[in-house]
Amino acid sequence: MEKQKHIMWVNSAPRMQTFGEATALAAEYLRCLQSLHPDFSYWETVTHKGFVPIAADLSDFSAWMRVTERPDKGRRQAYSHLDAEFNLTDASEARFGFHFSLQTSTKDFSGGDNPGRADHIELRINIDPLNCGVVLKFPAGRPDLATYDNLKNIMVASIDLWAADKAQVFTSAFANALEERHGRRIGFLRAVWMCYLRHMPLAACIRSDLPGGFLERLGEDALLFTLGRHSPDPENEHDMAQAETLQALFDSFHFDDEVTLYGWPYDPDEPRYTSQVTGAPADRAYVVGFCAFDGYDAERGVLLFARLFRLPSNCGTDLLPYYLENQERLESLPYVVQARQHIAAVRYVGADTPIEWHVGIEETATALKTLLNDWAAIPVEQLRVVYTPFAGHIDDSAPGL
């Protein structure tokens, strides 16, 4: 086996459901994996007691999950319907998001209760608000498990079952080469071996005849980009050139940050604020090119984007000197990426419509004016930041992230 890791991420947005529904979905997923490959019939889970086998028929799965996922004191408020001792029940409800990650290992596993299964597949499962899912690790010496067909089948099964928003498959060596060449973390680079995105405006803008056979459409709003059937090699100039071509396409759409693909972190007060600014239902969008704005003021001819932006200070609204001194770091801030994307989307459709960002927190609005219009030099005629106080009551206990 080559001396690198194959890595897969699959993520879906959080949605309200019960713990019973979440565990049932995770168990269904394991059964789905069992149908894809014979080696997915033996599971060993990792707990504080070490490696513990799960029954082949998953009959003990739900009980095991309730024990291992007992909410700690700081997370109890995220759930409803805990029992008297703050344990999870099948009726416990929260905003569960799912992720699945897989990686091959470059060394043998340690631990395990079955010495006859030294090549076992390591499984980690957690079901926790905003951070739910499965981590699967293949053993060393089994390159047959990390083939294009196997990895694609696992990824597509994950997407179908969890209605995933994004997924990536890449190797550690190729990811490191991309990171070094672009100066960005792999989470913000899309030109990996396989990249799945569910994004309706983008799907409408992407040409089906992309050069190099990059694109496969998995649905009306679902796109799978691939660099070929073989694992891309950072030492192969053709593979790197393909990645450069595909990354240039993503860069043209300014999908440099997670928020530009999947929106800002959920805030329960934000829909009311959006409706206040636009006068329209919060779930209604005004799509321009590959971006969805919150509304359009027809009388003034202005696109509207309304957010409370009630986020931790480490999200980038602190006006730190190194943002001004380091243009690359400034341009990588999610607020700046979002602003650049909005402007690019307007240009994409051949328009020059001005954009207004309505921000519900005064300190944040003041910082964003400096950050966007002064430091990032975005003309106020293109994008203007407006402080618009929220008319409703802000629930300070609600999580911003």
What does this structure look like?
This protein is of the alpha+beta class. It is 32% helix and 22% strand. The protein is built from 12 helices and 18 strands. It has a 10-stranded mixed beta sheet. Strands 15-16-17-18 form a 4-stranded mixed beta sheet. Strands 2-5 form a two-stranded antiparallel ribbon. It starts with 5 loop residues before the first strand and ends in a 14-residue tail after the last strand. Mean pLDDT is 81; it is low at 106-118.
Primary descriptors:
single chain, 401 residues, alpha+beta, ten-stranded mixed β-sheet, four-stranded mixed β-sheet, 18 strands, globular
Write a short abstract of this structure.
With 401 residues, the protein is α+β, with helices and mostly antiparallel strands. The chain has 12 helices and 18 strands. Helix 1 runs antiparallel to helix 3.
Calculate the mean pLDDT score and round it.
Answer: 81
Radius of gyration: 23 Å
What structural class results from the helix and strand content? Answer: alpha+beta
Characterize the main sheet.
10 strands, mixed
Number of strands: 18
Strands of the largest sheet, in order across it?
A: 4-3-7-8-6-1-9-10-12-11
By DSSP (H or I, 4+ residues per run), the number of helices equals: 12
Shape: globular
